[in-house]
Structures are given as C-alpha cells and as structure tokens.
Specification:
The chain contains 9 helices and 11 strands. The chain is α+β, with helices and mostly antiparallel strands. It has one domain: 3-Layer(aba) Sandwich (Aminopeptidase), CATH 3.40.630.
C-alpha cells in the first residue's frame, strides 16, 4: 500500500446502480456518490491504517488525516453507512476499493502490480476485479457490518459479471519469523494453481515456505489468520507465490485470488429468496 498527497477526487462512475444498494437495520452498503463520501472513506482508512495499525504517513497524509493515492480517482468505493451514527462522515464505518479492468486501463496498471507479477490475472479472458483498501471502524467490527460489506461485493460482482477477484491481503507486522506459521500454512494448503498464481516481484519476494507442513496444526494456523483473509479462503480463495513486506503500512502482504463461483452462487440464492418473498407478498 502507498499513501499519497491528498487531492480532490471525483468518483469515476455515474450514480451507482440500485443493485449495489442494500439495507440491514441501520446499516446500508452502496457505492460512494460524490467526492465528500470518498473523502469520508479516506478518513476512515487513515484512522484504521495509520492511527490504529501503525502505518507511517507522509507529511501531507498526516496533515490531511486521509489515506489517498492515485487510484482513488479511478475506482469505485464501496461504503457501509451506519445511519444510527448520523448522516455525516461519522456514518461511514466500512469501505472497500474496487478496481475493474477498465479502471486499471485508464490509470495504466493495477495496484497489486507494485508487489506482484499479475500477468496471469491480467490475461484472464473474463471480467476481473481488484479488491483493496478494506477496513472497518473499530467500533463496527462485528458480524452485521462484515456480512453487509460482503453482500455489497457480491452485488457488485453480480452486476458487472465479475469472474475473478484478486488483491493484496495483509498480515500484521513485518517480521517473517513471527509470521512463519501463517505464511507456511497458506503456502502448503492454499497455493493457487499455476495458471492463476501471481508471483511476488523478485526485489520484494519473501519465501512463504518457512516451516514444513507437519510442524504446525493447520486448524490452529487457520484460526489465527485475520478475519478478512479467512473470509477469502472460505470462498475458495488461493494465495500467490511469495509474500511482500510493506514497511510503510507495517504489514506483510499475500496476493489473494478468488474465482467468484461461490460469491455469485450465494448471491443468486439471496436474490431468488427476495424474488419469491415479493411474489408471495
């Protein structure tokens, strides 16, 4: 991840489709509609990445208290609002940054390409989606918020016919020795098939095969992974070859690849249940 100087960002899309607007109690998930909502997402990212997780901001980032980079102007920003908190910036409690192939072509690259050779992903013939900058406010890290965020992604995937999702997922810390078990677990149990296996760039490559598979309990290793990473694995996700240490963000990154079959299957079932309920009513 990289944090750049703040800028006035206008969303690259027109008003989002209603299919990516979902409610659950006081929570709502939808795409950002204007620069103010994008700024609220950037402020949330700053609180989580820099103030909570210990990322190292530039002077400009620290002064603005927003996490901003060049990709923000080209992507879609998926937001979770908690309307019980009000209607201003404080209502934004979750965010995900979504970059489709068309958006990456406008900026000239995907974000993940700074850490991984993603040629095998870029060459994929179907629609692809890069996921990134995911975070949830500390007071909103609960099952309803996470579920609604994933429902929003499922709706977006359904709306745009996405077949493959990918992006960087982070483990906390930059000490490979301290992360030997989770990295080895991911390598031995979830390595992507060769045709869909990004590889960390040579200058940043960190071998994930740090311990033999019989030296740790796989179930325990899985339980200790960050919730977001476990969520990707539950959807059948894989990891690329090699991890990358991100000193600025105080993390160690792995490249995640997820075919959307399970995502769209779950969304179809949800959509069909809603359709039946409307028909009965």
């Amino acid at each position: 991840m990289t944090g750049g100087a703040p800028s006035s960002v206008q969303p690259a899309h027109s008003r989002p489709a209603a299919a990516v607007e979902l409610r659950a109690g006081t929570l709502e998930v939808r795409l950002a509609r204007d620069a103010g909502e994008i700024a609220a997402a950037q402020a949330l990212r700053y609180r989580v990445f820099y103030q909570e997780m210990g990322a190292h901001p530039t002077v400009e980032t620290a002064l603005a208290r927003r996490d901003v980079d060049d990709f923000d102007a080209y992507c879609d920003h998926l937001l979770v609002f908690d309307h019980a908190r009000g209607s201003g910036d404080e209502a934004v409690v979750g965010t995900y940054r979504l970059i489709r192939r068309e958006a990456a072509q406008r900026i000239g690259r995907f974000y993940t390409a700074a850490e991984y050779d993603i040629g095998c992903i870029a060459d994929y013939p179907g629609a692809i989606l890069e996921l990134g900058r995911s975070c949830i406010d500390a007071q909103a890290r609960n099952r309803p918020t996470m579920q609604l965020l994933w429902r929003g992604i499922a709706a977006y995937v359904f709306e745009h016919g996405i077949e493959l999702m990918f992006g960087c997922a982070s483990l906390p810390g930059t000490d490979p020795a301290a992360l030997a078990v989770p990295l080895s677990y991911l390598y031995h149990h979830h390595l992507a098939p060769p045709a869909l296996r990004p590889r960390a760039l040579p200058a940043r490559y960190l071998d994930m095969n740090r311990q033999p598979p019989d030296s740790f309990d796989p179930a325990e290793a899985l339980s200790r992974l960050p919730p977001l990473l476990k969520g990707y694995l539950r959807l059948g996700g894989f990891v690329g070859d090699g991890a990358v240490v991100d000193q600025q963000f105080n993390t160690t990154d792995v490249c995640i690849v997820v075919k959307t079959d399970l995502v769209t299957e779950k969304y179809y079932r949800h959509y069909e249940r809603r359709a039946r309920a409307v028909a009965v009513a």
